[in-house]
Design the sequence.
């Protein structure tokens, strides 16, 4: 019994606590009734402290003692912003803003990019630098961006500062999004902390529906497709071009189901608790151009990059050439944010190229809009996005080029039939997932409404069926969400 409690309360290296683990749902089931009791009694301060404690415990279980960095970040932000907001001295205000941003971004850069810089410096000067033993804290990229947006927004008087340190700690550490987003603005979230919470049955069942959908996306679709995708990306030269191409197509579905699945779970849990985190994905693979894709994919990041990088650089207000440069810089920063590697820089840079090309062509082709051009635009956009996933998924730039080389130089049509025969289960899951991805959005809304307003016994049957489906497809080990590494 004591050993079991120790396992629950201590951080297990290599086994971070995640939404798709049984341990998390056991803890959440214990957490929820007490949260509900505090909410019903309108005991806001006790509720805030209770959620903070659980959030920090969740983050400790996910990232160990790195949770202390999160606490330090919250304390520094809160007091810097408090002094900055109260000061009538513009120079002091700007100095505190710059210092806060340097601390936030500098901490992120140290953990995420130090070894990447040392590796490239070693190649340039041949100094035989050794990589440092640095462990990347889970979610540091996400809560750093939230920290930056809060400090900047208060500085520019776009939002009010947090009423107390506890409020800000609640905002920065909130467990549904602390590990992998979505990136939530303080202006949208802080007012919800102090607002009177009236959690309706509709909100609870809507949240439960999102949680179930997210778990199916992750545990059933993404993890199953990953079994083959991982084999191909680990050794592209060992597979024909057609097999590699199927691995790339499979990964395009895998990463969507994995990350949108996480977002669905996070938004669903928050909704059950009475919080609105917005929407983070909106059928991105239906996009007809790259601009539309980034309005549908990882929406919270896209809006963050737009508001805190693209617009401050000048946006589209300083001429066409400057607009193109701003788009490229913004997407390069987006690529580097995702990972320290040349493959991520290429991924971000090429997305920037895609946005520039669309911006250049938009005024020239908008007048020529018909079914054919729409289909062609979709095909080009989807192909471009899918091809760039090669750089995103590959372990490094060399691995990405090896994958591309295999697809281009070793595409053997005679492998199609053997592949379909040998991997019929994978093909079926892939095809069903593709159909699901491209179904009309309104259909999903109708199914969700049907579940919300159905009889209790129907909800129970649906819930048990989903749990059984997840158990059937889940492996013995819990697979981490892809965006945990960012």
Sequence:
């Amino acid at each position: 019994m004591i050993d079991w409690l120790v396992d629950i309360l201590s951080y297990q290296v290599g086994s971070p606590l995640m939404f798709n683990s049984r341990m998390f749902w056991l803890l959440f089931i214990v957490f929820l009734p007490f949260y509900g009791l505090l909410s019903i009694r309108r005991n806001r301060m006790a509720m805030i402290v209770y959620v903070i404690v659980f959030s920090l415990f969740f983050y400790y279980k996910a990232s160990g003692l790195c949770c202390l960095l999160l606490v330090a970040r919250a304390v520094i932000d809160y007091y810097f912003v408090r002094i900055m907001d109260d000061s009538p001295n513009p120079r002091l205000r700007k100095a505190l803003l710059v210092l806060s941003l340097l601390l936030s971004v500098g901490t992120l850069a140290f953990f995420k990019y130090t070894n990447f810089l040392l590796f490239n410096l070693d190649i340039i000067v041949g100094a035989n630098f050794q990589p440092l033993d640095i462990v990347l804290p889970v979610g540091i990229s996400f809560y750093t961006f939230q920290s930056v947006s809060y400090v900047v927004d208060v500085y520019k008087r776009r939002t009010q500062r947090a009423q107390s340190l506890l409020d800000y700690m609640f905002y920065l550490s909130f467990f549904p999004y602390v590990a992998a987003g979505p990136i939530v603005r303080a202006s949208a979230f802080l007012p919800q902390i102090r607002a009177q919470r009236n959690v309706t049955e509709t909100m609870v069942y809507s949240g439960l529906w999102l949680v179930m959908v997210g778990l199916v996306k992750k545990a059933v679709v993404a993890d199953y497709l990953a079994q083959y995708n991982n084999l191909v990306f680990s050794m592209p030269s060992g597979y024909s071009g057609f097999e590699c191409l199927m691995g790339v197509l499979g990964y395009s579905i895998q990463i969507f189901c994995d990350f949108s699945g996480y977002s669905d779970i996070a938004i669903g849990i928050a909704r059950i608790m009475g919080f609105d985190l917005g929407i983070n994905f909106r059928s991105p693979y239906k996009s007809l151009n790259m601009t539309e894709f980034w309005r549908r994919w990882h929406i919270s990041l896209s809006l963050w990059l737009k508001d805190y990088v693209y617009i401050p650089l000048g946006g589209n207000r300083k001429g066409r050439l400057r607009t193109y440069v701003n788009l490229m810089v913004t997407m390069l920063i987006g690529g580097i944010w995702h990972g320290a590697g040349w493959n991520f820089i290429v991924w971000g840079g090429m997305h920037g190229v895609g946005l520039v090309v669309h911006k250049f062509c938009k005024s020239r082709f908008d007048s020529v809009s018909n079914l054919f051009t729409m289909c062609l635009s979709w095909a080009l956009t989807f192909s471009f996005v899918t091809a760039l996933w090669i750089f995103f998924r590959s372990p490094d730039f060399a691995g990405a080029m090896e994958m591309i080389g295999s697809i281009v130089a070793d595409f053997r049509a005679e492998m199609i039939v053997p592949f379909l025969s040998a991997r019929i289960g994978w093909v079926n899951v892939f095809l069903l997932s593709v159909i699901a991805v491209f179904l009309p959005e309104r259909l999903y809304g109708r199914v969700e409404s049907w579940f919300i307003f159905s009889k209790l016994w129907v909800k129970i049957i649906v819930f048990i069926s989903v749990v059984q489906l997840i158990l059937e497809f889940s492996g013995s080990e819990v697979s981490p969400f892809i965006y945990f590494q960012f």
About this structure: The chain has a mean pLDDT of 87. The chain has 21 helices and no strands.
